[in-house]
Amino acid sequence: MIAYSGNCECGNSRVTVYLPQTLDKYHPRACDCNFCVPRQLSYLSDPDGMLEIEGLQPFKLQRQGSNKAVFVTCHECDTVIAVTFKRANELKGALNSHLLSDAALLQPAISVSPKQLSASDKVSRWQALWLATSINGKVKRQ
């Protein structure tokens, strides 16, 4: 696994993503929903990788759209860190790709439209594509 790191705008939240391939092999996904578009968010994930999120303060957790996913946001600067989904005892997530120090190495983002999917199709897609995720060293209840 190759480790890449980054942080939010204020530096209070840090991320490390472990990926099986180099960043230049990945196309982040740019969601076309009303939450992500104004924030120009694009997400990076690999089902064989892992995401660690660390924060100096508790994170803000927000639900949008279908209320199935939870957006993890820095308490101080409101930067979206990741989008997550918890099922059973497993937390899955997709990282805001712009946070990575080496984000310039990524391929151009591709547009996706999760709002076109049913709630169960979204969950299936997230389970198949997102990263195993920990927040401050453990899985958090959402």
Strand content: 35-45%
Largest sheet: 9 strands, mixed
CATH class: Mainly Beta
Distance separating the two termini: 28 Å
Proper CATH architecture: Beta Complex
Number of helical elements? 2
Which H/E pattern describes the elements? EEEHEEEEEEEHE
Q: Assign an overall shape.
A: globular
As for the number of domains, it is 1
The radius of gyration computed from the alpha-carbon positions, rounded to a whole number of angstroms, is: 14 Å
Unreliable spans are none
Number-wise, the strands total 11
CATH fold-level assignment: Metal Binding Protein, Guanine Nucleotide Exchange Factor, Chain A
**Roughly what is the average pLDDT, rounded to an integer?**
90
Structural class: mainly beta
- The residue fraction in helices comes out at 10-25%
Structure commentary:
The protein is built from 2 helices and 11 strands; from the N terminus they run βββαβββββββαβ. With 142 residues, it is mainly beta. The protein has one domain: Metal Binding Protein, Guanine Nucleotide Exchange Factor, Chain A (Beta Complex), CATH 2.170.150. The longest helix is centred in the last third of the chain and has 11 residues, at 119-129. The termini are far apart.
Write the SSE topology.
Blueprint: E1 2-7, E2 13-19, E3 29-31, H1 36-39, E4 43-44, E5 50-55, E6 60-63, E7 70-73, E8 80-87, E9 90-96, E10 110-112, H2 119-129, E11 131-135
Parallel strand pairs: 3-10, 5-11
Antiparallel strand pairs: 1-2, 2-5, 4-9, 6-7, 7-8, 8-9, 9-11
